[in-house]
Automatic annotation (TrEMBL):
Alphabetized UniProt keyword annotations: Endoplasmic reticulum, Membrane, Transmembrane, Transmembrane helix
Membrane-spanning residues: 69-86, 107-126
UniProt protein name: Rab5-interacting protein
Lineage, broadest ranks: Eukaryota, Viridiplantae, Streptophyta, Embryophyta, Tracheophyta
Single Gene Ontology BP annotation: mitochondrial respirasome assembly
Family affiliation: Belongs to the EMC6 family.
Subcellular location(s) of the protein: Endoplasmic reticulum membrane
Amino acid sequence: MKEGKSVKFNLQQQNHQNGHLSPFKLAKLLDPDASWDKDQLGDVLHWIRQAVALVCGLLWGAIPVVGGVWFIAFLLISTGIIYGYYAMILKVDEEDFGGHGALLQEGLFASISLFLLSWILVYSLGHF
């Protein structure tokens, strides 16, 4: 058992020394001077959008609200948070990542599904 741990530790050390393993730190999420690659930034934007979708879906279902105007409100809130995050907090050059369209589209369709699912479930269960 000790041997398995030491082999894993040595492998991690070798990967880290070779530059293959870059640990992700939470402080990087708010650091405008941090360097981002396209996949890392895409993942962060995707998960932020999923969190916003879940919160909005739960909130919309619990209040309860219905109608297309609330769907549009979710899209505006979600897109505004994503834009504000990468443009104002991280201050990345959007052209390095495919432009505004590519960055604003990260996680959009999955978040719509999550938003609608949580909204409908909470609304249905709470107002049966």
